[in-house]
Amino acid sequence: MLKLIRLNGTRFNSLFDIGCADGQLTEQTANLLQTPIQNVYGVDIRSFGEKEFTFLQCDFETEKIPLPNDFVEAAIVTQVLHHVHGWKNLLKEIQRVLKPNGILIVRESLLDSEVNQIMLDIQHGLYACCICDEMDADEFVNQFQTEYISQNDLQKYLQTLFRVRNFVFDGKDDKFQKMLVCLRQE
Ligand SMILES: C[S@@+](CC[C@H](N)C(=O)[O-])C[C@H]1O[C@@H](n2cnc3c(N)ncnc32)[C@H](O)[C@@H]1O
C-alpha cells in the first residue's frame, strides 16, 4: 500500500490508525514508516486487549477522537468510513488531529455499483460467520451497517478538506475494488 502511494521509506515521527481493529496494520505501518512505538496511536470502538501502541476506545458516531489538535504527522483510515454514518464528521475530526503538512492515507471500497455493494455485504456476512462470535440479526446489522459512499462523493469531500497528494485504484482487477488516496493537510 505504501509502495503504491510512494511513501515507502519515508519516516514519520507519529502515527494514528483510525479504526485500528486488532492493530496488525497499525504495527506494520508504524514499522514501515519508522515511527517509534511510543508515538503510535490506534482508536476503535472495540478493544482487542493489550497493545504495544497506545489504544484509545471511541465511538466515531457519537464521540470526538480523544487526541488534541495538530497532534500526529501521519494517519491511516482503511476500510472504516463505510461503517460510519457520520463519515464526514469523522474526516473532520481526523483533520483536526493531523499536524499541518501531515499525511492522511485513506483506503476505501468503491461502492458506486450494485455489484460492489453486494460483494461487500457478502464479505461482511462471511466475516461475521467465520471470525466473529455468534450474533443475532440486530447485532449483525449494528456492527456491519454499511454506508454505500460513492467514489465521487468521497473524492469531492476529501478534496474540500485536504490537498490530494496521490490517488491510486487498488485491486482494480479483482471483485473488491478499492481506492487508495494519500492526502496532505494544508
Ligand atoms: C473493516 S474493519 C478495518 C480494520 C483495519 N482498519 C483494517 O484495514 O484492517 C473496520 C473497523 O472499524 C471499526 N468501527 C466501525 N464502526 C466504528 C465506530 N462507530 N467507532 C469506532 N470504530 C468503528 C470496527 O470496530 C473495525 O475494527
From TrEMBL:
GO MF annotation list: S-adenosylmethionine-dependent methyltransferase activity
Record domain Methyltransferase type: where: 17-106
InterPro entries assigned to the protein according to its UniProt record, in alphabetical order: Methyltransf_11, SAM-dependent_MTases_sf
Record keyword Transferase present: yes
BP GO annotations: methylation
Database matches in CDD domains: AdoMet_MTases
Superkingdom, natural source: Eukaryota
Keywords: Methyltransferase, Transferase
Protein name, per record: Methyltransferase domain-containing protein
